[in-house]
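Just scan my protein:

——
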Amino acid sequence: MSPDAGTASPTGHARVDAVLERVAELDALPVAEHPGRYEELHADLVAELNAEPGTVPAGLVPGRQAGQEQNGSR
């Protein structure tokens, strides 16, 4: 999150950005509901990052650089 704007910086991946934008919803929730919402957001991010390799920009996949293919199959 950007400390000045209070919003997440865009990643360039629309589906990941959509999940990150939902973090702003936490402000409207009681603190007791935050852990459940963080778990939900985390699960959604993991699902996006585990999507088919061609759907996630290489820079968002740990250990993979742009233009570099992963060895082996999924």
Summary: The first helix runs from residue 14 to 21. Confidence is low (pLDDT under 50) at residues 1-5.
